Write the structure tokens for this entry.
Amino acid sequence: MAKKKETYLCTSCGFESGKWMGQCPQCKEWNTLEIAAAPAGAAALTSPLKSIKPSDSIKRLGEVPVDTNSRIVTGIGEFDRVMGGGIVKDSITILAAKPGAGKSTLLLQVAQDVAAQGLRVLYVSGEESESQIRRRAGRILEKIHEQIWVQSTASMNEVLGAIYSVNPQLVIADSIQTFALEDYPSRPGSPTQTIECTNCLLQAAKNPEAPRAVLMAGQLTKEDELAGVRALEHMVDTVLYMEAEQGEDLRVLAATKNRFGSTGEMGFFTMEEKGLVPIDNPSEYFMTRRDPGQEVSGSAITVVREGTRPMIAEIETLVSQSFTPYPSRISDCMKKDQLNTLISILEQRGGIPLYDKNVVVKTTGGLKLSQPSVNLALIASLVSSVTKKGIPSDTALIGDVGLTGELKRVPSLEIRLRELDRMGFRRVFLPYGSLRKESVAKFPNLEVFQLKTLSSVIQKIFGDLKRSF
């Protein structure tokens, strides 16, 4: 009988090889190829077609029953928003973040809120002991609910046994790269173990007789990518990422994949001593309130849209004289190429030279700027900083700016204007033709200026700029 050929998988990138090699030819890592053996006792199917039988489980799509109460609403508004309205009862979700970002804290808070609804929650961890989890829960939870069950183990076999013993409606696994099945010889965190352990939890979640939701924590690589093979992201229903800047309290939760909701939604939290606190009104958080007449130069207000929610953002710029041949261009909220493009537009179309000026750009709260709708406000902020003239605190600017200096329309303007009206703004500058008269009439408290060019906006806000800069 011929010996079965062995397959080797790279534990770093998932490359598959028919023989062992010291260095992976794909990711160039050394000593990462391990045997991907079949489960012990598994019989090879020499002729798979012989086992095929007619199936009686197929249904017409229109006859499949739909559960209208298929979501678990946790009560953590920002988390539910990103999930699309709550956790789907027969879904599997992975939450990835850098160490210390707060993913375990968030999962524990979700467990508490779900248990408070009378649902059983099983929290399993391959990283922390049960006493460590208990101490963390005592720190961030006022009272630990009796419906939360905990298990500390690295064995997925024991986890599956616990699932069928407790029969929870929610399973939390922290983290998936720390578990291993006894049937496979590779170490925890290897592509084989990660995929097979995820597959076991997937089967437990999709069980039609006892559907349950599964939340998994995921580890990130040095490149800030989900550890393991790419197939892991394809297997799960939702992929969440939590972003956190070092030394900052702000936490941003975003979905890069969501089969049950929008991938554009974002949730905002602040990390405090008692855990993650949702920011229910981001517009208030990402701007500075100033009284009329107390405006400062270098600040401009715009409205960004994250998913279905509009948010007011404050852009701050600082322009100073450079005494070196190469002026600095510093921004932690947008790409440097985008900033340089806007500076060039301002120089050529706005008539304000910045070739000998240092430019620093940031946003209040550390919000990232990736949408074209912020470009007009950023350029206005630069003009304000150069001229040392503040933009009125009740004024906002929304629109893109082309290389020709013409203002370009952006989508969802009515939603953005509704947010400005709610927050008490009185003037807004938009590209020409953005809104019809009937749409403008919906906002009687807002004075809407629809202009064609960047120079006309500068003229309207700052007046004639004939002085030399």
Observations:
- The first helix runs from residue 77 to 83.
- The chain has three domains: 1-38, 70-279, 285-462.
- The mean pLDDT is 88.
- The two ends are 86 Å apart (CA to CA).
